[in-house]
Every structure is written in structure tokens, then in C-alpha cells.
Amino acid sequence: MLEMGKLRATGGFRAAAPRMRAIESKVRIPFRMASSDNSTPAALRRFAWGVLGYNVAVIVWGAAVRATGSGDGCGEHWPLCQGTVVLQHPTIAAMIELAHRATSGIDVLCVVALAIWTFRAVPKRHLARAWAVAVLVLTFNEALIGALLVELGLTANNASPARAFYLGLHLTNTLLLLAALTLTAHFLSRRSGAMRGSFAVRAPGLALTGLAAVLVVGVTGSLAALGDTLYPAHDLWRAMSRDFEPGSSWLLRIRWLHPVCALLAGVFLVWIAARSLGRAADQRLAAGVVGLLVAQYAVGMMDLALLTPIGLQMAHLMVGDLLWIALVVLCARMCLVPKAAVVAAERAAA
Predict the structure, then answer these.
(1) I need a labelling partner for 157 at 20 to 30 A (CA). Which of 173, 277, 330, 341 fits?
(2) How far apart are CA 177 and CA 136, in angstroms?
(3) What distance in Å separates the CA atoms of residue 98 and residue 80, rounded to the nearest whole number?
């Protein structure tokens, strides 16, 4: 106080003001830099989540293509349908397949726009940039695998091991694409911990094991669904007994793997969610994962009991995709913890 009085009395306060403002600006700059994670435009965040939702819709429609046997609706031609741009007298199968290709084409434009916008809107060390690149790579992988399924004739009533291999590869790439889109939107939406070096890694093995378990469930589910499509049954008992008959197709004899893997993975997911319930910020998300898991079991049992109608197959896939998205976000929040939150927790514990 005495020094301030001297400054006022001598007029030095005015002389010192520029220097004080310079010091103040130097103090504030680091805080602006620390909060730069949250400078992402709200429109970009909404667009990223919108592209993710659109991808889920495209994937669910792809299940309709497989369930209706419309994969060969355009013949062995890709990207053209039956070798032409405009169909004169299209069949229902051709219209279903063509609609899937058209929506997939729109999706390519969306992910390219998302990547460009992300690179223009966020700084170089932002994690959303890396995941946006992954989205581009996996999207073009998706198109390549889809083209191979058509060009190699692995559609319609084809029950070869080659079709099963490409179908499993297709499903794996699809889930990885959804994960990359989810993480792009997640890091664009983060308030902190979205820059490289701004987060601490916790229990990555636990999260990766959970995600790998769901991938296995998804692959076995795609093969079980293929068996349901190629070898439909007229009653539940007959459908279940064929799974253990020596003369049945190998696709039917491996269907039991899907429910067994789903039950084992479900127990693990509940354990992961239970570990997250201790953090107040993750409680709702963890409860959502458990709720979606229960819903997935319920839809799966209805699908089995009603002999896999197309609508329930699509619903089963949609709930599975939503469960996968919620799990990816939960694992990201559980394993990639902002360092500011870590410091705050350590201070609270002390």
C-alpha cells in the first residue's frame, strides 16, 4: 500500500501501467493456451456427431441389404448398378442395393468434409486430427471391401468360407470406423485433454480388452446372421437342433459361438462399467452402457424367438452399434484422463 501511494503521489502509476499490462498479458496467455481444447466451433461438434449418426443409419441399411438377399441386386458391377447409371426397370433388390450405395457415397462426402473442417478448425496437436485421418482411411477401406464382395460374387446365396472371411473383415472395419468417428467427435467435444501431452493414460489394457471382446461378438454375430439368412427355419426348435446336426452347414454349426461370446463379453463390460461408477462424471455414461447391453440381450432373444425377422435384425444391429459407441466414449474417458483432472484429484486426496 505504501508503494502504491508513492506511485500515485509521484505520477509513477501512469508510467508503470504499460509495464503492468504487459506482465498481465504474459500471465494470461498460458491460461488461454490451456483452454484451447474447448475452442472448437459448436457447429463442427454437431456436424461430427451428425456424421456418426448418419453412419449408423447407413450400416443398419446395409443389414437390410444382407437380410433381404439384395447384395447381388446390381449384379457383379461396382460402382455402377447392372453396368449402367440409370436403371430402366429396376427390381426391388436392385433398388435396395442402389439405395445403400447412394447413401454410402453421400457418407464419403461427409467424412471428407469432416476431415477438412477439423484440420481447419483445430490446432496441429489436437487428437481429433489424427482420428479424422483414421476415419478417411477406414471409410475407403469400407468401400474397397464392399466392392470386393460384389466383384467376387460373395453375395446372395453364396455360403463359401471366402464370403465369411470378407464379411468378418467388413464388420471389423465397420466397427473400427464407428470407433474412429466416435473419437473424432469426442475429442472435438472435450473441454480439456484433447491435445497431445495434455492427458494421462490409465488402464489401457482393460479398455482394449473390452473393445476387442465386443469386436469378437460382432464378427460371430455377422456369421450367425449370414447363417440365418441362407438357411431360414420355420420353427425355433428346428432352428436350434440344426446347429448340432453333423450334416448341417458349417455356418449353422458355429452359431452357438455368438451367444456364448456375447455372454462372456457382457460380464466383462458390466465390470468395466462398475469401475467407472466411482467417478461422478462417468456415472450416467456407465449406466447407459449397462442399459444398452440389457437392451441388446432383450432384442437378441426376441430376434431368436421370432426366427430373425428383418426388422429385428436391423434393430439388433442398431442397438449393438449404439452400445459400441457408448463403450468407446467410456473407455476414452476412463483411459485418457486430462492432466488437470489428475492434478485436481491428487490435491483432493492429499
Answers:
(1) 173
(2) 9
(3) 9
